[in-house]
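Slide 14.
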Amino acid sequence: MSSVAEMSEDALEVRALSPTLGVEVLGVDLAEPMTDPLFDRIYDAFLAHQLLLFRDQRLEPGDQVTFARRFGSVQVHVMNQYHAEGFPEIYYLSNLGPDGRPSGKHPDRGTVHWHTDGSWARRTGQATLLYAVEVPAAGGETRFTSMYEINNPTSTAVTSVSVLFSQPLTVGISTDLMMAMQKLKF
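Slide 15: predicted structure.
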């Protein structure tokens, strides 16, 4: 993208993704060393918009961990069978089978449905960083919501909310049953 000398906080640009959540961040190569003022602008955008999208990045696992650490301590997930080799901070999920073709199966069934990352922990992380290695032309969406907006009494974005949160409830039950339960109004 640009050299370290050229990559400054002045090159950073943000574009809204929706009226209530997220911005696309342009003018930054996350694989390059980052100045503190540039990261400060990225962090300010995170605090203001809660979701940051950086398109077309080429990051090695070490680059991902280095960038994640700028936000604070990095959680090492308890399901160590999904740790990236040499980088336990990276939780690697893929739906590709041994033949390299999509298997139609998700390796962690608990994440197929609506969830909050790390909600099983006493203290959750400040943020989740997702890095897509391969993105399908259609489908495969990950969806996000602003809990600030849900709790905003003046918001018209959400008209009613029903929530049941129970980690033990989701352990050991079928996907069909879990989906049926998510449709219930509590």
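Speaker note: The chain has one domain: 9-182.
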